Predict the structure.
Amino acid sequence: MRCKIILLISIMILSISSIGQDATLFGQVNTFSGKALGYANVALEGTKLGVQTNNDGSFEITDIIPGRYVVIVSFLGFEPISKKITIGAGERAILNFTMAEGANTMDEVVVTGTLKEVNRLESPVPVEVYNPIFFKKNPTPNIYEALQNVNGVRPQLNCQVCNTGDIHINGLEGPYTMVLIDGMPIVSSLATVYGLSGIPNSLVERMEIVKGPASSLYGSEAIGGLINIITKNPIKAPIVSADVMGTTWGELNADFGIRFNLSKGISVLTGINYFNYNNPIDNNKDNFTDVTIQKRISVFQKWNVKRRDNRLFTLAGRYYWEDRWGGEMDWTKEFRGGDEIYGEAISTERVEFIGQYQLPTSEHMMLSFSFNSHDQNSVYGDVPYIADQKIAFGQLTWDKSLGKHDLLFGSALRYTLYDDNTPATGGDLNSPDNNPDEIWLPGIFVQDEIDLHENHKLLMGLRYDYNDVHGNILTPRLAYKWAITKNDIFRINAGTGFRVVNLFTEDHAALTGAREVIVNEKLKPEQSYNVNANFIKKKYLDNGGSGSIELSGWYTYFTNVIFPDYETNANQIVYDNLDGSAVTKGLSINADWTLHNGFSFMLGGTLMDVSTIEDDIKERQVLTERFTGTWSVSYKFMDKKFSMDYTGNVYGPMRLPILGELDFRPDESPWWSIQNIQVTYKGLKSVEFYGGVKNLLNWTPWKNQDQPIIARSFDPFDRNVDFDADGNVLSTPQNLNALTFDPSYVYAQNQGIRGFFGIRYRIK
């Protein structure tokens, strides 16, 4: 009996001792750039033990029973990571983690919403961020095409023949979207139509998108939203990089980059992009090229100068040249500008400069400047369009913190010179009657971001601009952010927007020569009032996965808007001020999930209504869908050496610009979808291979249509078209449907299914 009592006491002592021998796990979580990752989730798989990292990225888990565990770390916007560890009794084990960014990083530092660096989740203005990982899921040769998988953003083709296009945000036409490079309005209105395809993905560090008016910070054009392309930092870029891709249609895209140190304090990044497509294809048998023949080259260089106290000084420049043509299959350059064989030939040359210099003062003051020159030499059949646009921009900002107030003061000056051979500037560039458009646009703005409470922020802003033609323009702004919990954030923004219209640089249809342009009255600036609300919820799963759901709603009311009227006269495009109002409103949802098993999902949907009310009649805007959806499904397997990406989009019906009641073409587009798949191999140290199929469904606008998309493609010079005294087309035996040649009936790409293969190489 005595032995049993001694044995029982011994067991109890050992049990108590083992309890005192519980282990502890501690460590650090960082990104690959060396940044500490605060508030990341660290958990032991299969247990309820877990913590969040501190602001400095450190963590400590206590009361761990000795044994073998899988430690999982997750953070929204980063790929989950896990490590196995065996912990002994009483041990203080250390385990550090380095996390790789996902396609949409939540803790990214953004600048677009407030003109100052701020954590994305802390910004009172909702900013969407997309990095190169996102764009690699569906590799494209340029930014224009890459945006097709961003929810609520649609690249819109404006011409079936020359394939020029612009960017729609939330259903608004391309001119309402402001495109910036490193925060500078470097992408002029001519480039919005002709030069977007010349911005290569290779120079992009990340892309920030703000949906809704931002005129209070950026002035004219930022009425529907803005896209800020942040270029790579020469200090962080790879020493050597290359990305070469070809398709079964004969397209070739090549990106090359090299970084070097010019001296101890000067880093230089040089990038070259080359694109070539020289394979005329006519699958729809209308005797016109389905895709334009293109050659382009872009040379980019960025300098980073190291200064005392880490003050910023960067300089960047880019040269861009493109030559493209589309038209009848037997067109050659000797027919350029003639009326024998129809072709649209566009030659573009651009030069851009950007600079940012932090003043050597105790206050945080930044001088930003940019300049771009765009030369355009185009012909549309026998109609020439020769244009020259130069834009110089300078901006000085002062960032000042006073207690709970984070103030930003700024002054800006924008100079625009525009000249072309159209009646807009007096005709021929060499004519004595030539009168180039010259605009000075000075402005000042102030912004105050107030910390009302730990979880509440209020932002107020006001901008004043003076336009030579339209006088004084005020644009106020108000934003509020409420962090309901650390994983639930609500934002609401309100403000106004304005835009000065220049038809001949923005509306490609006005230049093709297929229709006569009629301007009924002096066009006034477009003005709008806007409110949008945004809610984001982050969620961390027990198995190490993480995700977010983001809901947004917006309402924009235009007191004046300039829409092209294609319908009053089939042979004209009529412009005048809106005698009424216009509204764009909608709802959108984005879901982003990354799972521990290798799957990740990005899903988005947007429901919207863009319409005008004139003479008490409501009408949907032409070429605007009511619903759009995007998705990206990715899976990593075989120890993450392989990955598969399935991306796509779907668009609802939109009104199309038909040429009258007798036009045989549908007045509304069908539901349509472009889907892609690719496989990537990353098993080698510096090289990765990728390949797949684009447009899996082989969908084209003419797929289920018997008649050609281009009206009267067999008579592009309208030789057999008769008109009445008012310019209306007559129905004749040679033209029963009363049509003219018209390539503006376009809403989607004309390029079918194709395979692609590429190689990426880089030395860090």
